[in-house]
Amino acid sequence: MELLCPAGNLASLKAAFRAGADAVYLGLKDDTNARSFAGLNFTPEQIKQATKLAHSQGRKVFLTLNTFPKPGEESRWYQAIDLAANIGMDALITADISLLDYASRRYPHLPLHLSVQASATNLAALDFYQQAFNIERAVLPRVLSIKQVKDLAKNSTVDLEVFAFGSLCIMAEGRCHLSSYVTGQSPNTGGSCSPAKHVRWQEQGDKCLTRLNEVLIDTSDVDQQLGYPVVCKGRYIAENQTQAKYLLESPTSLNTLSLLPQLASAGIKSLKIEGRQRSPAYVEQVTRVWREAIDSFLTHPESFTEQARWNQVLAKVSEGQVTTLGAYERQWQ
Amino acid sequence: MKISLAPVSYCWDKTSIEDFYQQAANSQIDTVYLGETVCSRRRLLKFKDYLELAHMLKSHGKNVVLSTMALIEAQSELAELKKHIDNGEFSIEANDMAAVQLARQANIPFICGPTINNYNRASLDILQTMGMKRFVMPYELSKAWLESVISEPTKASFEVEVMGHGYIPLAHSARCFTAKHFGLNKDNCETICQQHPKGILAQTQEQQALLRLNGVQTQSAANIDLTQEIISMQQMGVDYFRVSPSSLACLDLANELTNALSHDVVDDKYELPFSHINNQQCNGYWFGQAGLAQV
Fold first, then answer.
1. Is A232 within any annotated ligand binding site?
2. Chain B residue with minimum CA distance to A102
3. By CB atoms within 10 Å of each CB, which of A133, A235, A309, B42 scores lowest?
């Protein structure tokens, strides 16, 4: 079972490997990936360096190319595939049909991982991508229950990767327009959800107003710790009500530590930690906990128990310091 | 250009659905999409009920398309999807890659719905080789995007449909937000969404209408209205202008638009009917802006 960690820069990549990551995923410094934030990500030269470093330590590095090429600008996406293939990166994580087609034809040796942005949530969709483009692995969207994940793992011939920890998308990824409805940019089109340039915190007395492109997403106490503002985690007033509530989801992070034995016995190939936009310190802390948990499970699968201190470390770096099993648990749905 | 009617995205009771499609059958509207696209727990109408409605509409001269689910998670949902694919008579609208896969295996043509991620020409061309005959533009894309995609490098030979009127489906989740709002969850939801035939409106704390909760689907609070763009769409080569219904009034609008277009008038002199559905309007996506903007 692979532990796959985020790398927003070289420092995070080194932190991940130091803490025991088997592999990292990273993206270029532009909108070819869905974490296109200023100051984040890698130049082609840095990617070469990162790949060399990873391979010298016997680790893997995957290129995240999970946005959809814009008409007239396709060449940037194709060049990124050429880069990944030419420098011997270990896999390409991508969602767009034309990119899967390009990569599978030109570089049949380059393993293809279907990005979560492709939103493949069932056996027929996985079959589609495998038969058409020979994908080796798929990243499952965070909309499936643990039972559905197990069913897929049992029946699919594609290796499966799931999100183990990090920010929680509650919508089927790759098909959510909430960000573009409010800001004009979505992960698919602009390379990020809730682009930072549209976020504004405004103090008003003892309240802090969180705005996204001037739309009021939430109001909170000034001293309250705030998560990154996204439309799905705001407080709104429902029809015939007066109180604002978290109608979709409250600020919380996904933590599947308690599911580790079930995910392992289902044959899940890789556990993904979310957070390329987070600090090297976050990457190191989270990776260390998951490394320890996985090793502890692999050594004594029968007697595995979650340790309280693992969850304490994870809660500390979680949004609102709260974690959830999200859709893995039917009750949440 | 023709007018099409999108599938009803809300949970209406059987009588309301039947009345709605009876009126649609008696209208001038060219193409009618129907079927449950949002939630498999809505069982007020079964597949055979939709099939009966499809036959009734066909007998009134409508081009009928069976729409399929946007988010497919369970094996049982795939079995239901297979029934749609194997209906033997009507085209299907694929709203998940699962439908593309099953249609391709069965060697039948399909229409790519708006929730299939078609963001560039190369992807559309590949899907066309697999049997796609028409695609509905993903909601968040623009006029400029569409112009480029259907004209470069060559003129596209597949048909093009654009959502022109209605509330925009913005996202789908495993979670039912309507159930959550009433302290329930999806497994014990009591199909409570049927009490909200236009979804539940959600406003910001400054009373700005923002979203509309429709079970596992989240829609825009504002109504997209591109009726003023019909002539320019026609000139661009858009084949279908889609009206997404939220009430019977939408049928009147779709019918009126159909009549206007049948006059063969493509110049600016002809005055198209204005939308009668008074609501917060938006058209931002079409003009390359935030979806909620009104340009």
1. yes
2. B122
3. A309
Q: What is the ipTM of this complex?
A: 0.95
DSSP conformational letter for B137: P
DSSP assignment letter at B203? E
Give A13→chain B minimum CA distance, Å.
31
In the stretch 126-155 of chain A, residues with CB closer than 8 A to chain B read: 127-129, 131-132, 142-145, 148, 151
> How many helices, marked H, and strands, marked E, lie in chain B?
9, 12
Q: For chain B, list the strands marked E by DSSP.
A: 2-5, 31-34, 63-67, 91-94, 110-112, 132-136, 159-172, 200-203, 209-214, 217-225, 240-243, 281-282
Residue of A nearest to B205 (CA): A236
Domain range list for chain A? 2-168+252-332, 178-245
A212 touches chain B (CB under 8 A): no
Is B193 known as a binding-site position?
yes
- State yes or no: A208 annotated in a binding site: no
Ordered domains of chain B (ranges, CATH): 2-168+220-287 (3.20.20.70)
C-alpha radius of gyration, chain A, whole number = 20
Beta strands, E only, A193-295 = 199-204, 207-212, 215-221, 236-238, 244-245, 253-255, 270-273
Q: Which CATH superfamily is domain A2-168+252-332 in?
A: Aldolase class I (3.20.20.70)
Min CA distance, A112 vs chain B (Å)?
17
Put simply, the answer to whether A215 touches B186 (Cβ < 8 Å) is no
User: Do B210 and A98 lie within an 8 Å CB cutoff?
Assistant: no
Q: What is the pLDDT along chain A (333 residues), one digit of tens a residue?
A: 999 999 999 999 999 999 999 999 999 999 999 888 888 999 999 999 999 999 999 999 999 999 999 999 999 999 999 999 999 999 999 999 999 999 999 999 999 999 999 999 999 999 999 999 999 999 999 999 999 999 999 999 999 999 999 999 999 999 999 999 999 998 998 778 999 999 999 999 999 999 999 999 999 998 887 788 999 999 999 999 999 999 999 989 999 999 999 999 999 999 999 999 999 999 999 999 999 999 999 999 999 999 999 999 999 998 878 889 999 999 999
